[in-house]
Amino acid sequence: MEFPAYRPRRLRRTEALRSLVRETTLSPADFVYPLFVMFGTGVRREVPSMPGVYNLSLDQLPAEIDELKALGVPAVILFGIPDAKDEAGSGAYAEEGVVQEAIRAIKAHDPDFTVITDVCMCEYTSHGHCGALDEHGCVMNDVTLEMLASTAVSHAEAGADMVAPSDMMDGRVGAIRSALDAEGYSEVPIMAYSAKYASAYYGPFRDAADSAPSFGDRRAYQMDPANGEEALRETGLDIAEGADIVMVKPALAYMDVIRRVKDEFGYPTAAYNVSGEYAMVKAAARNGWIDERRLVLETLTGFKRAGADIIITYHAKDAARWLKEGE
Ligand code: PBG
Ligand code: ZN
């Protein structure tokens, strides 16, 4: 007996048929928008390598939040650009630090908008590394854990809804979890940058946050791009230490890692579509070499198809607008 051949094109004939069998849908509710905050007033400084992305002074935040809310984007992740840096990165955990003040400014304007904070030292240290240095210029793990824990607690005190450690020190999720619990913030979740690679794709971010290391690189703490198995070990450790959401970063060159992490752990999984990924798209679009709208929506859909539940992306506002237009 002869079986009818499966003819996939039957279901591609019209948009209605295609949408009936579509496996993955993208929504503005999946997005987290990164914000670079600084002191001062009236500052809206475009990052040269990231067209459409700005360093914003605190007074600009309410309007920014209103815009995101209107677009259906539910959350921001904050990065701070402090007025001054020092050896100890004290601006990271200062009660009146720039991120702490930004959290207060957003929460005063809209208590319901979700504020996530990046927890790291590199924006605040004079040397630009993600922790405290020993006499050889090597980042000291356990001393750094205390700084990170104080930073996370100071963010929670200011009203952050979630903290996201991006430093890649061993044991930082556990250290932050204990400190938050001890200070009465057991309800504040941790989104861990679990599989964070030592990547060339962070270049534009380091312009935006003025956080490039003044010597050396981050390969002694961030992951080797060649390693996939290790991503599962790193993620497993973070989950054992209390991570609520795990992250893969960057996203585009690590789609396989997103899929493996999702399959292995079944945890809420975030993909960070990083600055260099954004800059490449913007540069090509400016040259008229690609269709920006189609390319961005295709890429973001790819992250979801790979297993991401949450997408941290500088394209969030544009993508949310395009998705709304397409409704
Ligand atoms: C800080 C941090 C970085 C990014 C997020 N948090 C930079 C780095 O590790 O050098 C990169 C984000 C991006 O490139 O968009 N540790
Ligand atoms: Zn860092």
Characterise this structure.
With 327 residues, this protein is α/β, with parallel strands linked by helices. It has a domain at 21-244: Alpha-Beta Barrel (TIM Barrel), CATH 3.20.20. The chain contains 11 helices and 10 strands. Strands 1, 2, 3, 4, 5, 6, 7, 8, 9 and 10 form a 10-stranded mixed β-sheet that branches. The radius of gyration is 20 Å and the shape is globular. 46% of the residues are buried. Bound molecules: ligand PBG and zinc ion (ZN).
Annotate the secondary structure layout.
Layout: H1 15-20, E1 31-38, E2 44-47, E3 50-57, H2 61-71, E4 75-81, H3 98-109, E5 114-119, H4 141-158, E6 162-165, H5 172-182, E7 191-196, H6 203-208, H7 229-241, E8 245-249, H8 255-265, E9 269-273, H9 275-286, H10 292-306, E10 310-313, H11 316-325
Parallel strand pairs: 1-3, 1-4, 1-10, 4-5, 5-6, 7-8, 8-9, 9-10
Antiparallel strand pairs: 2-3
Helix pairs in contact: 3-4, 4-5, 5-7, 7-8
Zinc ion binds next to loops.
